[in-house]
Structures are given as structure tokens and as C-alpha cells.
């Protein structure tokens, strides 16, 4: 989800609620402790120099169990961050603490913002020697008459 999308969604909500992809809710008393732009300059394993940008939202649970972040307040935080930091309209990445700091993509399911699990990937598969995955065939689905005497398949 891009920053412009969350800004369009927030005014229509009564509450800001986040849930993990597995359905577990982020506690209602979460805080958004950071909004920022992260720029990552790197070289992939194929030698290509790359640059990625994300808007980073950091969620944090404190011991103030009565705290509730309202949509207008989050929208104001985002607008202030855009103004002061020059944040661009790029994809949002959410940091949230579980066993360690996790990084998540963000989606909206019509009611809640959903923290989608992220995975690693090779960006240069053609250059780093990853073998092409062979298509697997189920032997039970192969016809019993695929090889006949004199058919040239044996």
C-alpha cells in the first residue's frame, strides 16, 4: 500500500486497527512512534546497483492501556512527516515488535490494516547461478500406455 492510499482510507474510519496476517490483532493501545522515509542503496548478487525507498511506520505497544490512536491524529502525523521530511508517495513498510522487530507490507481489508508477512528473494536469479526449478510430474497422472514396444521411448 502506498502512502496516498492510507491517507485516503483514514478519514473514513472511526478507529485505526492493525492485525497480523494470521488474524492476531495488534493491541488497541499501540502507538505510531516513527514515520519516516527509508532509502536503501545496495548491490544485488548479480552486481546490479539498486535503490529502494519505503515509508516506514513503527508500531509500539506501551503500558498505557487506555491509549487509542484516532484516524485524524495518524493522518496529522503523516502530513507533518511529509512536510518536514519530504516523504514521497511510495510503499509503506510497517515495523512491529514480536519476538524481534518484524517488517511488514501493509494492506487494508475494508476494516483493519493488515500487516502482511514479507519474504526475502533473489533479485538477480539469472546472474547468481540459481538452478531453474524442474517441473514436477505426478507419476500417478501419467498414462500407463505412454511407452509401447517399438514406440522409441525406452
From TrEMBL:
Among InterPro entries, the record links this protein to:
DUF6428
Q: Name one Pfam family in it.
A: DUF6428
Lineage top rank: taxon: Bacteria
Official protein name in the record: Uncharacterized protein
Q: Which organism is it from?
A: Chryseobacterium aquaeductus
Q: What is the lineage of its organism?
A: Bacteria, Pseudomonadati, Bacteroidota, Flavobacteriia, Flavobacteriales
Amino acid at each position: 500500500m502506498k502512502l496516498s492510499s492510507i491517507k485516503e482510507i483514514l478519514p473514513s474510519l472511526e478507529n485505526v486497527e492493525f492485525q497480523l496476517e494470521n488474524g492476531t490483532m495488534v493491541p488497541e493501545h499501540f502507538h505510531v512512534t516513527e514515520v519516516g522515509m527509508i532509502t536503501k542503496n545496495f548491490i544485488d548478487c548479480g552486481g546490479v546497483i539498486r535503490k529502494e525507498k519505503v515509508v516506514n511506520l513503527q508500531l509500539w505497544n506501551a503500558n498505557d492501556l487506555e491509549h487509542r490512536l484516532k484516524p485524524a491524529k495518524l493522518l496529522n502525523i503523516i502530513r507533518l512527516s511529509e512536510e518536514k521530511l519530504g516523504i514521497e508517495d511510495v510503499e509503506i513498510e510497517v515495523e512491529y515488535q514480536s519476538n524481534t522487530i518484524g517488517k511488514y507490507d501493509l494492506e487494508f481489508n475494508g476494516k483493519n490494516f493488515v500487516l502482511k508477512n514479507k519474504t526475502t528473494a533473489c533479485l538477480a536469479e539469472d546472474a547468481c547461478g540459481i538452478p531453474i526449478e524442474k517441473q514436477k510430474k505426478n507419476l500417478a497422472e501419467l498414462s500407463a500406455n505412454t511407452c509401447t514396444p517399438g514406440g522409441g521411448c525406452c
